[in-house]
Amino acid sequence: MKPTLILTVLSVLGMFPASAAEKSLVELANPLQGTDSTGGFSHGNTFPAIALPFPMNVWAPYTQQAKDPFYYNYRQNKIRGIRQTHQPSPWIADYANFSLMPVSGKLVVKEDDRASEFRHENEIANPGYYSVHLDTAKATAEVTPTERCASFRFTFDEAGDSYVVLDAFANNSSVEIIPGENKIVGICRNNNGGVPENFANHFVIVFDRPFTAHGTWTPDAIQEGQAKLADKHVGAYLKFDTSGSKVVSCKVASSYISPEQALITLDREIGKSDFEAVRKQAAAKWNETLGRIKVDGGTEEQRRTFYSALYRSVIFPHSFFEYDAANKPVYFSPFDGKVHEGYFYTDTGYWDTFRASHPLYNILFPEISGQIMQGMLNAYDQSGYLPSWLSPGHRDCMIGNHAFSLFADAWVKGIRNFDGEKALAAMVHDANTQAPANCKSIGRDGAEFYKTKGYVPYPEFKESTAKTLEFAYDDFCAAVMAKSLGKTAEQEAFSKSALNYKNVLDDSIGFVRGRKSDGNWCENFDPTEWGGPFTEGNSWHWTWSVFQDIPGLIKHLGGDEAFGKKLDQVFYTPPDVKVGTYGQMIHEMTEMVASNMGQYAHGNQPIQHMIYLYNYVGQPWKTQARAREVMSRLYQSTPDGFCGDEDTGQMSAWYVFSAMGFYPMCPGTDEYLIGSPLFDKATINLPDGKQFVINTKNNGPQRPYIGDGFFNGKSFDRTWLKHGEIISGGELTFDMRSTTDHKWATHPEALPHGGMTELAKPAGK
């Protein structure tokens, strides 16, 4: 059963007024995808992110109160402003926000008072442009972005008292109006953690014409004529004469470094360009970025979904660096509160994005990927730990040391514009260091027990089995780095601990489970029970999290035939839920039940790779069928377009890879597994000008199976593809069929290689 669609046909048609064939790529991507969500059921938990790829600042309308992390909800009919935002997830929340809002008639400044009714048919959203007519405010608000700035245009319906209201939000903000320069400068400090005491976001807003009156405000009072104010929560307003032109425009920039740096950025990124020029530049940037992958064929909705997913994949992580007057990259460190030269990226959780997002960047944006690696080493220098969840500094969220995975995956794929020796040293440190009490996501929670016993015990440590599995995978990634660098001792140590998954795998029942500190298994095991030793899932989800050694897992679960049957059981076991230590149904549970694919919970990360594991046991047709099923049933381009949290690009990157027909099952290796290409043709336009093309013949909705394959004209009869084959350019062609004869790519040489098997080979082999 597909998750319930709440949109009417009329609203969908209103959102997409023209055919996809008439649209540029930026117009195919829908920022409203996933915005029809609640805390209890996520269709993505997204907001309309208007920004350039990998931006420092994002701009978005908000329908809820500013403090509400679920701040844009598609079902609501009022907008309170267009805000600068950096929120990676409603579960992490936002920081460094301020907003602008037009007001007509009587001056109102508080967010509930200035909130204006709107209708979605009068809302236009694409990644580089947002427009909405505000019925109550009697004005149209538009915004278009650069990487760190934005251009706004407010068009009032009629002449009269016309205002633009600035809200600098709570947590000790300040504003200063400079009438002679048509300018407002200010500071917002709002945040939800991950910042030092001297954190500040300096903003500057320059209008295109003089204003006739101005003032400041707090939630308690309006100060007419006052030009400067600092308090817990402040704002400003400007009044404009619209008896002639009804259009008021402004350009906006911000900086974490200084107000002077904000002006440098504003001059560099917008300068004297008007709104339409900035909008045109934004569209060109998005068309170039989305054009890194060109798809042909499929349905119009599939193409919209694909480019919406590709857009979501590159909204995160956010750049946190700026270019100074000498055009050098510099950044304010959220760790030590100082300004440093170099790169830093933030607002992402590697527990989510190591799986598909970063492997996608390694193909499409290797230079940016290298900068991300440099930024992680900068975080290590300034905080003493590699990051796991950043927003903007360390956040206590999720598990694992997946910076290890990012380093290894980039390194084995030839991205080496970062210090590999230093990266390995940081891995050694974090793998042997207990997580600090105030942030369990960095270092290792249970490090000492894991080192001595080879697993994390329960109940002494929450989510212990999940942590053991992820630490073991991350150790594999560290071993890969050590091998490449010729560090034999580190390679041997990490290779040994990469097999620690076996210490939480109970062969007698065929599941991973909780284990006590005395070595005994935890009692009353139920594979449908969530929580306890698992993170946001149960044993049905986590048993497959042995990315690095699937051949070893197959042996422990009884061999190829038994393993294939157990994979089948995931889908055939009813989607029953035992809430366990969560004590109640959480949204991930509800989403799994609604997806109605048994115990397969695509709405959360732990099991998303599992579909591709059929390839290891010579049953690739099952991977093909299930990948198509997930793409067709659980993704669409509409506001209810996801089956769970989108999670800073991971859910979208899964779709991008799967729609092209291959997937990075084990990041840290150079191997991708074949699935079922969705389109007639997908062309990857590589950074060096080469192309990698995936063609299909006889494709269609009921033809998911590969009957034959050819690579550069030669027979292709295997379920794996090497990274070098992609970046060298070439053409891969599949003949698609409605049924399978169980012959294509089922022989032993066709099967994928286990990561541990490859790691054990001598260097250079």
TrEMBL record:
Gene Ontology CC entries for this record: cytosol
InterPro entries noted in UniProt: 6-hairpin_glycosidase_sf, GH-type_carb-bd, GH92_a_mannosidase_put, GH92_N, Glyco_hydro_92, PNGase
Keyword Magnesium: no
Molecular function GO labels: carbohydrate binding; hydrolase activity, acting on glycosyl bonds; peptide-N4-(N-acetyl-beta-glucosaminyl)asparagine amidase activity
Segments forming domain Glycosyl hydrolase family 92 N-terminal: 30-255
Name this polypeptide is given: GH92 family glycosyl hydrolase
Classification via Pfam families: Glyco_hydro_92, Glyco_hydro_92N
Annotated GO biological process: carbohydrate metabolic process; glycoprotein catabolic process
EC number, as in UniProt: 3.2.1.-
Alphabetic keyword roster: Glycosidase, Hydrolase, Signal
Keyword Iron-sulfur: no
Organism: Luteolibacter yonseiensis
Signal peptide positions (record): 1-20
Boundaries of every Glycosyl hydrolase family domain copy: 261-737
